[in-house]
Design brief:
Strand content: 15-25%
Number of helices: 9
Low-confidence stretches: none
CATH topology of the largest domain: Four Helix Bundle (Hemerythrin (Met), subunit A)
Distance between the termini: 24 Å
Number of strands: 12
Order of helices and strands: EEEEEEHEEHHHHHHEEHEEH
Helix content: 40-55%
Number of domains: 2
Radius of gyration: 21 Å
Largest sheet: 4 strands, mixed
Mean pLDDT: 91
Shape: globular
């Protein structure tokens, strides 16, 4: 199975060596020495960089040939750019996507399906971790919010309903955490440990999803729930919204309950809180393992990985956009 290469250190140089990528970085235990690591390019799904690096043109050339996208972020996880290999794009899929974007009824239908699925998964998470059944009233309220989604007549109203749902969900989420402090949701900057890992986890998931969207021949810039805005990949945000509860929210609670991720793995200042290097390694290690974990998926009569679920969801959307399917209902993998 192909993997994503995560680069978390600055002062790293990435070069090509035959059919491998050579990662050269300073040895933190011996000043003046460097550590070199070779990784077969055939094993890579994508490359994600968090920090300052040098990358050679020959490496980008072979990444282009092997269709390996590269995503560049600041050390703290703010996206700053990307390298997307040239590839023949099945134009018909994108034409259907653009047509659906300008069809307000179809656009609203897709947006409602996304919000409905994300809301369902978050309710499932609360039920899973609420061992003492102390959130029954709150879950009932959230279910009422969810049941109103189909009544939305405009995306602006849908977003308002989603905002109310999320405010109540985060209040419940904070009660389920054992170790990580969590007040209200804050993003720019995150003010406490739970907000820091939530924001960082969302960025990592966003990068994962946009790599999959790119490979599925969809235009990542044109979303349905999230409007195109600047250079952000709106469709990647849409698909990520479906998987945020399953992957990010679920993994945060899992690592918190196990005591794997603790306040000591963060750097907290007066106005912001960020993941420390060790915290990032803990998150990415568990995130990578989770994406590779598999479940039995009856429609295919085989086991599939969490990463493959994202690809199947993209294909599911394509079938609706191209009118192969008459309705768009996000797939239910029953992860929770």
């Amino acid at each position: 199975m192909k993997e994503t290469l995560y680069i978390l250190s600055s002062e790293v140089e990435l070069t090509k060596s035959k059919d491998s990528l050579t990662c050269t970085r300073p040895n933190p235990e011996n000043e003046g020495e460097v550590i070199k690591q070779k990784i077969p390019l055939a094993h890579l799904h994508s490359i994600e960089v968090y920090g300052r690096i040098k990358i050679s043109t020959p490496l980008l050339k072979i990444c282009n040939e092997l269709k390996i996208p590269c995503y560049f972020n600041t050390y703290n996880g703010v996206p700053i750019g990307q390298f997307l290999p040239e590839k023949p794009i099945p134009g018909i899929i994108r034409l259907f996507q653009y047509k659906s974007y300008f069809d307000q009824s179809k656009k609203l239908h897709i947006a409602k399906a996304i919000v409905n699925k994300a809301s369902l998964e978050r309710i499932r998470i609360l039920r899973k971790y609420d061992k003492k059944k102390e959130l029954n009233e709150e879950i009932s309220d959230l279910t009422s919010y969810k049941n109103k989604i189909h009544k939305s007549r405009k995306i602006s109203a849908l977003r308002g309903l989603e905002g109310n749902f999320m405010k109540k969900f985060f209040a419940c989420f904070s009660k389920l955490l054992y170790h990580l402090p969590f007040g209200s949701r804050s993003q720019q900057p995150p003010k406490d440990e739970a907000n820091a890992i939530m924001s960082y986890g969302n960025v990592v998931l966003y990068n994962t999803v946009r790599a999959v969207v790119y490979r599925c021949a969809l235009d990542p810039l044109i979303g349905f729930l999230h409007d195109p805005n600047g250079n952000r990949n709106s469709l990647a945000l849409d698909i990520a919204e479906i998987f945020r509860p399953i992957i990010v929210d679920n993994l945060i609670l899992l690592l918190d309950h196990r005591g794997t991720l603790l306040p000591s793995h963060f750097r907290k200042g007066d106005i912001k809180c960020l993941l420390a290097p060790k915290g990032k390694k803990i998150w990415l290690s568990n995130y990578r393992n989770y994406l590779q974990s598999s479940i039995r998926y009856p429609p295919l009569r085989r086991y599939i990985s969490i990463r493959e679920e994202i690809k199947l969801e993209c294909y599911n959307l394509i079938k609706y956009l191209t009118e192969e399917n008459k309705d768009y209902i996000p797939l239910d993998f029953k992860n929770i």
